[in-house]
Design a protein that fits this description.
111 residues, mainly beta, 50% strand
């Protein structure tokens, strides 16, 4: 059974950093591209970043330079390092792979 579990969200001040994690039961990560999406209040879900099994990464243009996606295949985990966070980064962040979604982790950027 596929199970994606996101973690690492929380409250952070503007300019701060967070690292999100997405752990998989091991069924999907080895052969699938893994994506991070986010959904801000009142807005549609949007793509943040993706990473292939070979660790080729892509990003939303607006987030390049601040966010970094990476993966540890041995741990079946994908990470999203978020730096220089802004209030507009406030959203629920979701992991998505192979048609499956996690439940999300909330990131709040506020002073």
């Amino acid at each position: 059974q596929v199970q994606l579990v996101e973690s690492g969200g929380g409250l952070v001040q503007p300019g701060g950093s967070l690292r999100l994690s997405c752990a998989d039961s091991g069924i999907l990560f080895g052969t699938k591209t893994v994506y991070w999406y986010r959904q801000a209040p009142g807005k549609e879900r949007e793509l943040v970043a993706g990473i292939t099994p070979a660790a080729y990464a892509t990003y939303a243009d607006s987030l390049k330079g601040r966010f970094t996606i990476s993966r540890d295949n041995a741990k079946n985990t994908v990470y999203l390092q978020m730096n220089s966070l802004k209030p507009e980064d406030t959203a629920v962040y979701y992991c998505h792979v192979g048609g499956h979604w996690g439940k999300g982790t909330l990131v709040t950027v506020s002073s």
